[in-house]
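quick q for whoever's on today - can somebody do inverse folding on this one?? i tried earlier but teh output was garbage lol. tokens:
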């Protein structure tokens, strides 16, 4: 089977269709209706999953940042109040879980702390995503791995040495690594898509791509370079308030991205040279000699 893992009922990796995850993250801005709308957008586009982020704000917000004031749609509030305002709890995730089941699309999340792992376990997710920001958090990595689920590891803001250490903690069983540059939005000359090939040579697990760039062509190029998993942020409107919207794809763009990826993976083929039936009529009309005469 080669380098293959399982996310829910889907095999991901060698010989499999590219797994496409729409990263809703916190682009719902704390509004459950927006979250449900984004789930619908991803489902209509043909994505395999939607992904969220789960934090325990009191643990994740550094003490020196908690009382910093931030201008928000709810007025000027502290950073801790802002993080709490956009964080979904059990009731909201229960609704998300139900909505995804009705729509027939998988969902999982990036836990940012051990308490969030325990919280998400109640929903039996098919996988966990390790955000780039938490790649060096050994306690979180161990908590995620102890849950026994597939792990998707994002690599932004990290050196190869740090990535090696994270892989040593997680192990390569049911692990997928995604190349990533954590700039929002990321300029094209910092995408470094050839890292997909570098990671494939370095590790024995499947390699994907998590992008934060503006536009679609470079994400499609990642598939051509071997990414078997693609993740992009999705938003209803890139002009919405919030830190991730500008680096996200709007509904029409997500529709096009999924189509472009499916066309690209079909066009890549298997690398075996053959004469196609569609070529034979032209061959009969245009070729005068059937074989080279040495």
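ok took a stab at it. sequence:
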């Amino acid at each position: 089977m080669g380098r293959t893992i399982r996310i829910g009922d889907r095999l991901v990796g060698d010989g499999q269709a590219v797994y496409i995850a729409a990263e809703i993250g916190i682009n719902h801005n704390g509004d459950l209706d927006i979250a449900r709308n984004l789930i619908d957008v991803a489902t209509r586009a043909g994505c395999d999953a939607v992904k969220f982020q789960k934090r325990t704000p009191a643990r994740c917000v550094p003490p020196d940042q908690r009382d910093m004031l931030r201008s928000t749609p709810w007025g000027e509030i502290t950073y801790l109040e802002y993080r709490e305002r956009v964080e979904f709890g059990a009731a909201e995730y229960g609704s998300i879980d139900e909505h995804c089941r009705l729509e027939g699309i998988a969902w999982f999340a990036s836990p940012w702390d051990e308490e969030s792992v325990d919280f998400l376990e109640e929903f039996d997710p098919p996988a966990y995503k390790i955000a780039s920001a938490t790649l060096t958090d050994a306690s979180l990595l161990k908590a995620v791995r102890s849950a026994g689920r597939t792990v998707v590891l994002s690599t932004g803001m990290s050196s190869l040495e740090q990535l090696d250490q994270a892989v040593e903690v997680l192990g390569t069983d049911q692990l997928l690594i995604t190349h990533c540059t954590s700039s929002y939005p990321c300029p094209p000359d910092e995408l470094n898509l050839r890292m997909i090939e570098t990671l494939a040579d370095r590790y024995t697990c499947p390699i994907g791509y998590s992008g934060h760039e503006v536009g679609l062509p470079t994400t499609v190029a990642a598939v051509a370079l071997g990414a078997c998993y693609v993740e992009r942020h999705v938003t209803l409107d890139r002009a919405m308030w919030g830190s991730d919207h500008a680096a996200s794809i709007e509904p029409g763009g997500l529709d096009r991205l999924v189509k472009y990826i499916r066309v690209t993976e079909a066009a890549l083929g298997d690398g075996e040279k053959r004469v196609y039936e569609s070529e034979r009529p032209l061959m009969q009309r245009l070729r005068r000699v059937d074989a080279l005469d040495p």
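fwiw The longest strand covers residues 19-25. also Residues 251-268 form the longest helix (18 residues). so keep that in mind when u check it
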